Amino acid sequence: MHVDLATLERAGAVIGGIVVGVVAFYALYKDWSTPGIENHVFKLMLLLLGVGAVLAILAGVNVLGNFPKAA
Amino acid sequence: MAVASIAHGIAPEGEPDQLYAETRDLRLQGFLLFLISDCVLFSSFIFAYLYLRNSGQGWPPPGIPRLDVGFAAWNSVLLFGSGATMHYALENWKHGNFMKYMWMLIFTIILGLGFLGGQGYEYTHLMLVEHVTWAGSGVFGASFFTLTGMHGMHVFFGVCYLTVLLLQSAAGTYTKQKYFGITAGTLYWHFVDVIWVVLFSIFYLI
Amino acid sequence: MSIESPQLAHAGGIADHIHPEPQGFVRRYVFSIDHKIIGIQYIITAFVFFIMGGLLAETIRTQLLNANGGFVSPGTYNEVYSIHGSTMIWLFIIPILTGGFGNLIFPLQIGARDVAFPWLNMISFWIFPVAGLMLFSSFLMGAPTAGWTEYPPVSLQGAAGTSMWAAAIFLVGVSSTMAGLNFIVTILKMRAPGMTFTRMPLFCWAQFATAPLLMVATTALAAALAALFMERQFGVPFFDPTKGGSPVLWQHMFWFYSHPAVYITILPAFGIISEVLPTFARKPIFGYKLIAFSSMAIALAGFMVWAHHMFTSGLAPYLQLPFMILTFVIGIPTGIKIFSWTATLWGGKIHLTTAMLFAIGFIATFLCGGITGIFLAAVPYDLDVHGTYFVVAHFHYVMVGGSLMGVFAGMYYWFPKMSGRLLNETLGKWHFWLFFIGFNGTFMPMHWLGVEGMPRWVATYDPQFQFWNRFESISSYVMGISILLFFVNVIWSARAGKKSGPNPWGGRTLEWMIPSPPNYYNFKHIPTVFGLPYDFSHPLPYKGLDDELTDTPPVTASSHY
Questions:
Q1: Does residue C4 surpass a pLDDT of 70?
Q2: What 3 state SS string does C204-242 have?
Q3: Residue C255 CB neighbours (<10 A)
Q4: What are the chain B neighbours of C242 within 8 Å (beta carbons)?
Q5: Is C484 a member of any domain?
């Protein structure tokens, strides 16, 4: 398999994205019923972190992204 | 959850519980409002970028190369990863696992520095190889470098703050009941992460 | 979020915690963290800038005595009106209403010992005079000449003073943002026990509506100013059309702040009027909830109408329409207030003190300004009078006939609370009548001058406008004299005015329940509140205030927290 830096970066993005996404959504699930404004804010941020991880995965597999050949 | 436990917890000598709980509450509200105002700052520049992008002739404008999405995705994962490690740092502190907390905090700082390094690479590549600069590449350079630069500065301040947190935690400044500095640092770090989710999407994905 | 008051006066909490009194001149009066001292510092500094801005105004009026000018050069004239507007808005009216009266009064009215972040409050204040000096230093390097709005491309080409202007206003904006944050947390978290939101005085509601504007809108301005600075100093293109930028982008960014900014300048004044009227009509305020919620509505809707300043900038008609309609809609909560204030006066026992004269005068002149605002909201009308003296008339009626008269009402009302002495009523009445006559003489003719086509920001004008310009200029000198009388009154009364005692006006809000001037700790015991302050036929709705006017000292914290 031809492995160049670009492929390595994308692989890293996908693998890392999966790891972070799982961590973020799992933490969100576990902390779902904690009360108080600071916990609500943390939950919102974990959700957005998870969304970011998903976006990184999709970018890594060429589904999303401003590429020369339209994706 | 955390506030209630503080209010009923045992305070170190000198300071009554109720006073700490109330002032912590004020500080939390103040810090959240500060994050909101920071959000408005980024939103204003994001509006400017989207406005300028929409009134032109396609994006990137003629003569400007496309950004490297693959690299940015990888770099983003470094930052998102640091968000996850910071979350666990706070969790570990709340459960009293000091060593795990310290390691998680160190990983957060390392990943944050990694992200900054990646941004540095992106900038030097753009400026020296592609000849895309802040002032010399029309509104593309203006919006890209201003927004990512502002974000990078926020990450840098965050890394500095987390380093201070590391040193303070080692010196025993925080207790199991009184650790607002760690909470604030976590909130700020997540904030910086979330801003990047938006910037990554609007510069690299659309 | 519940609107019930958080019971913050638990034993050992903030309400019970009284610091030892600060010692030494510097700690007490220079770098003070006491909201009352900071409030007075803001008021004094703001009035200093008011005088400077006023001298610039008189320069404008003197230039306009003659159709062919001759008092200053056209270039200087452009600098003068640009700095006049910038000073009056950013260095006078916003600081005095928010940092000045806000700091001074609302913590007392909610029964707090101070604001949430006293150190931040002090830093907020000290940024203000520094930023003001920076703004005036721009005269030394070629002050901005494109008005207080500094539209590109002209502002991109201006002398170095334009960058200094941007930096100065950015800085004073930081001060505002921090103050807004401080006020929001204070009102949310530090009200006395029993003071639910619907038992809070209307001045506090006004500050609570203004604080998010201070925090959010000012940050948007900071972004615009930073972009202008970066473009001027480093060549980073945002607004230069030859490099792909857009001048209209500046207008959007600038007005997204500056429209909410005008609500920042008027909402606290509304709050002052809502306090003064019931006290001197000896009647409850009519429509308390209407006034309270309409303030919030105005603050919120204020974010949605900015482009009514841009009707002539090439906006598509389908965009002009919603802004026009929303601007009409904002007139509704404002109109509700005018009706409520009038109904407050109806059937009341009116005491025409100077504060009351200014408050009643406010209703008349602000109404006038508000109505011309509705005229301007209509796109076809605005297309005709945009950039003319009609606009100048409108905003001076709301800012001078509105906000400034609110400031004067607040001064006559609360000066005794802060200094222990009354302002002289005779001088006050001379002040009011000369001001009212001079003000209307200066700004009323601007309406028809604008309709007849006299543009704003011009150093010379067509001779057909000469008569009314002369009339306005002479009237402005009358207004200037009245303001001089005011300052004489303040300075003289501060030393030799009649002693006021704790409650010279029979007010019912909490600030009148403590000595004049208040002790540094405000209240010996934070009272419990169980009703609205304005119910004149009932006893005072407070418990726990018996000790406030005696000589017993408070219990202070033994160590400094």
A1: no
A2: HHHHHHHHHHHHHHHHHHHHHHHHHHHHHHHCCCCCCHH
A3: 22
A4: none
A5: yes
Give the number of other CB atoms < 10 A from CB of residue C14. Answer: 23
Convert the pLDDT of each residue in B168-179 to its tens digit.
999 999 998 899
Out of C12, C215, C243, the one facing B33 most closely (by C-beta) is C215
Which residue among B26, B29, B138 sits closest to C244, beta carbon to beta carbon? B138
B139 touches chain C (CB under 8 A): yes
Cβ separation B37–C252 shorter than 8 A: no
The answer, yes or no, to whether residue B101 has pLDDT greater than 90, is yes
Please tell me the distance from the alpha carbon of residue C467 to that of residue B137, in angstroms, as a whole number: 53
Q: Which residues of B163-193 are buried (b: 16+ CB within 10 A; e: fewer)?
A: eebbeebeeeebeebbbbbbbbbbbbbbbbb
Q: Are residues A10 and B74 in contact, defined by beta-carbon separation less than 8 angstroms? A: yes
Q: Chain B: residue nearest A6 by CA?
A: B70
Beta bridge pairs of residue A31? none
Query: Which SS3 state, helix, strand or coil, does residue C105 take?
Result: helix
Domain count along chain C: 1
C-alpha angle C507/C512/C517, rounded to 5°? 140
C65 in Cβ contact with C470 (< 8 Å): yes
Could you report the per-residue pLDDT of B14-40, keeping only the tens digit for each?
Answer: 456 788 888 999 999 999 999 999 999
Beta bridge partners of C421: C499
Residue C26: inside a domain, yes or no?
no
Measure CB to CB from residue A49 to each of B1, B2, B190 and give the nearest one. B190
Contacts with C249 from chain B: Cβ below 8 Å: 48, 51-52
For chain B, the structural domain boundaries read 2-205
* CATH number of the domain bearing residue C144: 1.20.210.10
- A39 at interface of B, judged by CB pairs closer than 8 A: yes
pTM for the complete prediction?
0.93
Distance spanning both ends of chain B, measured CA to CA: 40
For residue C421, which phi and psi values (nearest 5 degrees)?
Answer: -130, 150
Question: What is the distance between the alpha carbons of residues C345 and C360, in angstroms, rounded to a whole number?
Answer: 9
Mutate to test the interface with B, among A45, A57, A64 (most CBs of B within 10 A): A45
**ipTM score:** 0.92
DSSP letter at B172?
Answer: T
Category of C150 on φ-ψ map: left (φ > 0), alpha (ψ -120 to 50) or beta: left
Mean local confidence (pLDDT), C344-352? 95
The residue-averaged pLDDT of C283-303 equals 95
Contacts of B77 in chain A (CB under 8 A): 12-13, 16-17, 20, 53, 56
Mean pLDDT of B105-130: 96
Q: B139 and C238 in contact by Cβ < 8 A? A: yes
- For residue C414, is it within any domain? yes
- Other Cβ atoms closer than 10 A to A62: 13
- What Cα–Cα distance (Å) separates residue C7 from each residue in C18, C170, C527? 18, 38, 12
Q: Is position C120 within any domain?
A: yes
Which two three-digit tokens encode residue C34? 């006491």
Q: Which chain B residue lies closest to C213 (C-alpha atoms)?
A: B37
Contacts with B140 from chain A: Cβ below 8 Å: none
Taking the CA of residue B81 and the nearest CA in chain A, the distance in Å comes to: 6
Domain that holds residue C295: 34-543
- Is the Cβ pair C223, B29 closer than 8 Å? no
Architecture (CATH level 2) of domain B2-205: Up-down Bundle (1.20)
**Chain B residue with minimum CA distance to C254:** B44
Query: Position C20: which residue type?
Result: P
Contacts of A13 in chain B (CB under 8 A): 70, 73-74, 76-77
